[in-house]
Amino acid sequence: MNMIVAADKNWGIGHQNRLLVSIPEDMKFFRSETGGKVVVMGRKTLESFPGGMPLKNRTNIVLTRNPGYEAKGARVLHSVEEVLEELKAYPTEDVYIIGGDSIYEQFLPWCDVIHVTKIDHAYEADAYFPDIDRMPEWVLTGESEEKTYFDLEFRFCRYERREA
After folding, report:
1. Helix, strand, coil share (%) of the chain residues, nearest 5
2. FRET pair for 11, CA 20 to 30 Å: which of 26, 83, 126, 159?
3. Which CATH number covers residue 46?
4. 46-65: string of b/e by CB count within 10 Å (b at 16+)?
């Protein structure tokens, strides 16, 4: 299972249910990685999308504790266990956890690969991704050249879980 996230230098990923910054090249990378695949997200992440609608050309799975929640075009589930059971129907390499912070935290133990767009800037954030640079089980296995968007520097990084 994969995770995909854009994080600032303090592992901040969002503020007031919005991304910290929108970088076109990062959005393009997200679309190319997840297109035709399965994306797992929390309710607030779904609601942050345009019109609160699921992502096109993907199987959308939403995890929420709200038993009455419905999302047109998405499968709504209510526990990590339910999601894991649902995901058995898909190849593990086709599953992407896409946020928010509590969803990342809950699914981290089941992931093998994390794609991080590391943004070299510190934003005001109220949502964070776990600092995998401090976790010995995660190894940086790939990194792009430094890229820029206006005066913002960023890199695409790939982390893999170290074999125990």
Report:
1. 25, 35, 40
2. 83
3. 3.40.430.10
4. bebeeeeebbeebbbbbbbe
